[in-house]
Amino acid sequence: MPPSEPLLRFRGVSKTFGAVRALDDVSFDVRAGSVHALLGENGAGKSTLLKVLSGAHAPTAGAVELDGRPCAFASPAQAFAAGIAVIYQELHLVPEMSVEENLFLGHLPARFGLVDRRALRERASELLARVAPEIDPARRLASLSLGERQMVEIAKALSRGARVLAFDEPTSSLSARETERLFAVIRTLRDAGAALLYVTHRLDEVFALCDAASVLRDGRHVTSFQALAGVTKDELVRTMVGREITDVFGWRPRATGAVMLEVDALAGPGIASPISLRVAAGEIVGVFGLVGAGRTELLRVLFGAARKTAGRVRVAGSELDARSPRDAIAAGIALCPEDRRKEGLFPGLSVLENLNVSARERHARAGFVLDGRWEREHAGAQIARLAIKTASPAQAIGMLSGGNQQKAVFGRWLEGEPRVLLLDEPTRGVDVGARSELYGILYDLARRGAGILMVSSDLPEVLGVADRVLVMRQGALSGELRAPTRRRSACWSSRSRGPRKKARDERRGPILRAPRSAPASGLVFALLFGACALFVPNFLSHANVEGLLLSVSTIGLVACTMLFCLASGSFDLSVGSTVACTGVVCAVVLRDTGSLAFGVLAALATGLVVGLVNGAAVAYGKLNPLITTLATMQIVRGAGYIANDGKAIGIGDERFFALGSARPLAGVPLLDFPLPVWIAVFAMLAFGLLLARTTFGRATLAIGGNPEAARLAGLPVERVQLAIFALQGLVCAGAGLVLAARMTSGQPMSSQGLELEVISACVLGGVSLAGGTGSMLAVVAGVLILGLVQNAMSLLNIDSFWQYVARGSILLGAVLFDRWRSRR
Fold this sequence. Notes:
Strand content: 15-25%
Shape: globular
Mean pLDDT: 83
Low-confidence stretches: 484-518
Structural class: alpha/beta
Largest sheet: 6 strands, mixed
C-alpha cells in the first residue's frame, strides 16, 4: 500500500456508557507509514477510542475500518489477529513470568499442548533483536526497568505481526535516554510502513515525532492536521482546550518566609549519600534526575513510607521522626505519589470517597461519625476547583480518565492546607489545560505559606515551575540551579551521563524451577525432617513413613488443583465438602443400584457439577470466590447429610476397597506403599507438568499475575477460570472416592477443615494468595511439612490441640521468612 493511503479509518465512532457519551461521531484517518498524534484534554475520549480500536470496547455506533474494510472486533484477540496492537500507559504484562513468555502471552508456541521452549526462545530473541537486543529473553520481567518493559510491550505487539500500533502516553515514566530510544523504534516501525497512533500530553514530543495530528474535545473530533509544518504549539493548545493559554507554566515571583522543611544528612532506603536540603515557606523546589536516581525514595522517607536510617527532619522548626505516613500527615506533610493506581487511588470507591479520605477525620462528628453535608460540599468544591470531569461525586473513580484520577489524588490534600507538599510526578497523564490549572493551585498554596518539593522527569516542567532545581544522581544530590540561571543545558550537564545502575539480572531458568518463594518451604521442610530423624523415635521406620504419606495423600491430591486455583488469583473453600459429598454419593448409588461403575461415575459427575457451578459464578457471574465457594461449601455439605440423615453409608464391594488399600509395588524396598500414596504422587507430577509445561498452565499464571493483561493479550480468561474450577471438582471427587475406599464407607462428617489444610499447604509452598506464582515442587514441600508436624507430635504423644498451634506457627513463620527474603 502506498504510504499516502489511509490504513486505518474511524468512521462516525460513538460510545456511550449509560447516560455518559464518551465518544460522539468521531471520524478521521491514519495513514500507513506515518505517526499520527491523538490529542485532547483528560476526559476527551482518547483512551475510550483506543479501547474501541483494540476490541476492548464495542462502539455504540460507527465503525473502525482497516484497509478500507469495516472491522467489528468482539475482543482484543480479534484485533490482534487483524494486526492491531494498543500499548497502554499502564503496561499489561505479567511481572512474575519471563520476558519470552510475556512476548507470546496468549499464543505460546506449543507442540501437542506442551510449550515448545526452544521455539519460544528463538522467536523471542528474534523479536528483541529488533527493539532491545540487550534484554535476555529468559529474565524475569519484574527485574527490568520501566523503559525495558516498554520495549517488551512493543516487541509483544510485533509478535502478532501488528501493522497498526497505538501508544497511550508511552513516555510518562521514561527517562530522556529511554524516550529517545523509544522514538527510534517508532521511527523504524513508521519507515517499515506501519500506521502509528500516538497519544501524549507532551506537545514537544508531537513536533519531534509525529507527522499528523487529530484533536478530540468532550468526545468529539474537533479537527485534524494532515501536516504539522507551520502549526504552532499555541494553536494546538487552543484547539485542545477551546481557549487561549499563552503560558502553561505561568511562573511568578512570590515572597518566601522561614524554613518550612529542613533536612540534614538524611539517609534511608534508596538514598546512597546523606541528603541535606531546605524548603522555605512559599518556595517551590524541583527535584530532577534520571529514573532510578532516588527521587521517589527521598520523598517516601520524608513521608514516613520508608524509615530513615540517619539524619534529621524538621517541619516548621519542629523535629519530626515519621514512623509512618500518619506521623507525617499529623505534622503537616502531604504526598501525591508517582504510581497513582497502586499508591494513590481506591479504585473501587467513589470520587467523593477518594477526595475526602484524608480530611474527613477532622470533620467527623465525635471523631468517627461522618458529616454527610461536609462530605458532599467538600467533594463538590474540589471537583469544581480542579475541573474533575465526572458524572457525579458518586461515580467510581476507576471510571475516570487517568488525568482526572491524578487530579483527585492531588485534591485530597488541598482542604488541609499542608505545611509541606511532596509531589512525585504530579502532572503525569494530565493534559496541558489541566496542568496550567494545577500550577496555578501550586502557586496559590505557596503564596499561602506552604513549602513544596516537586519531583518531575519533565525537564521543561521543573524549569518552568520551580524556584530552585535540585539535581539527583544515583541516590545523591549532585547540583542545584536557581531561578536566574535556570537553563536546559545547565540542567542536562548536571545530570548523570554515565550508565544507569542496572537492575539485578534475575533470570528464569527452566519453567519447572520453583518461584522465588519456594526455598522458604524447602528450608523449613529440610530442617523439620532433620530434626524428626534425629530426635523422634521410630520416625524413619517404613511403617511410620507409610502412615505419614498416607495421612497427607488426600491433602496432596486436592492441593494439585488448589494450586491452579490460587495461582489464577482465586480460591475454593468448598473442596472439603465436595470430597465428603462425593464419597457419600458413590456409596448411595452403589447401595441402590449395586453397580460400582455407576457409583464412581455419579461421584465424578457430582464433583464436576460443583466445580462448574463455582467456575461459572466466578468467571462469568463475576461473583467473589470467597462468597461463592463458602455458599457451595455449605450447600454441598448439607446435601451429603441429607443423603442418609447424616449417617455413614457402608460400602461392601471388595473391588472398591482396592482403591484405598492395594499395594501396586508390594515387596519392592522403599516403594511398597498403598495405592492412595501413588495416586497423589502421580497426580502431583501430572499437574506439575500441566502448570509448568502447557499453554493452559502458563495462561493460569498469566491470569493470576495480571488479569487485564491476560484479557488484552487474547487469553480466554473466563474459559480458563471455568476449566480450573471444573478440574478442582473432578479431583475432589477422585479424592472423595479414595477416602471412601480407605474408610470403607461414605461419611458426610469426613474432610472437615480439609480446605484450610490444603490452602495452608499451598501457602507454605510459596503460592501467593494474590495469584500469579506457584510451583508444584514447593507445594509438595508444603504438604509434607503439615504431615511432618502432625506425625512427629503424634509420635511424641503431644496433645492434638497443640498440633494446631504448631502448624499455624510454622505457616506464619514461613510466610514471614519469605516476606523478609523477598524484600532483601
